[in-house]
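Notebook entry, structure prediction.
Reason for the run: the old model in the group folder had no record of what sequence produced it. Starting over properly, with the input documented here first.
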Amino acid sequence: MGYRPWMSAPAKLAQEICDGTRGVDWDAERVDAAVKALLKCRTAPPSELAEALDALVARLESSQPEDHDGIAHVAITAGTLVEYGQAPERLGEALFAKLPDVLRGARRCADRCLAQFPNLRGFHQ
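New structure, fully documented this time:
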């Protein structure tokens, strides 16, 4: 999507979050600053927050687990906008679509960790 001069302030901040989370070497400080600024926009008009949520959900929908980027920050920030009153449907659909891949990755991670501690009983299935 990229920067568009006519975007609302919340949408510009959301786009900054999206851009800042891309790639393995994503910029945590840049993202943190944009997240904090976006969360201060809590009282912005609902249409502006909806525009911000749209940008975040679009980024989430295009993400892949193998990207190894900061997409979790996008999802959490989008969830916060839902907590602020934005419609949850599109975010929920995007998250549910990603869930199987996330769970497979979590299982691979757990299996690797558990392999390092063979004496733990009850955790190996």
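Summary: Helices lie at 9-20, 28-39, 46-62, 71-83, 89-115.
The old model has been moved to the deprecated folder.
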